[in-house]
Design goal:
17% helix, 117 residues, three-stranded antiparallel β-sheet
């Protein structure tokens, strides 16, 4: 029965139960592999870590090191203060931190470029 507030998917109302899937909708997403899967797993594990979850999910964001080219860096402040930095060039960059760091939570480096096609 069609009516206001009802959503239809594949000819079935979502209120009536699970909709029937057709063709490509049945396929499961391909499993990720390689570097991207590794990175995603590390990031998810860090976000779910109860020690850092509050800061990563609800903390405030404060950009830093804006003057450096090809560098994205910010503090994530909550019950803890985290520095997140990403170097967007192949050459190394150095940062002068205002204080000594206590712990590196995640360090991911790619050592080679993808082959040009």
């Amino acid at each position: 029965m069609k009516g206001p507030g009802r959503r239809f998917y594949g000819g079935h109302s979502l209120a009536e139960g699970k909709p029937q899937l057709y063709g490509d909708q049945r396929r499961r997403p391909a499993k990720r592999s390689g570097f991207r899967a590794f990175l995603l797993q590390k990031l998810i594990r860090l976000r779910k870590n109860p020690v850092y979850k509050e800061t990563l999910v609800y903390g405030t964001l404060e950009p830093v090191f804006r003057e450096q080219k090809n560098l994205m860096a910010y503090y994530r402040r909550g019950d803890k203060t985290l520095l997140v930095a990403g170097n967007y060039q192949w050459q190394e960059q150095s940062l002068t931190l205002p204080a000594a760091y206590k712990k590196v939570l995640l360090k991911i480096m790619r050592t080679s470029r993808r082959k040009e096609m």
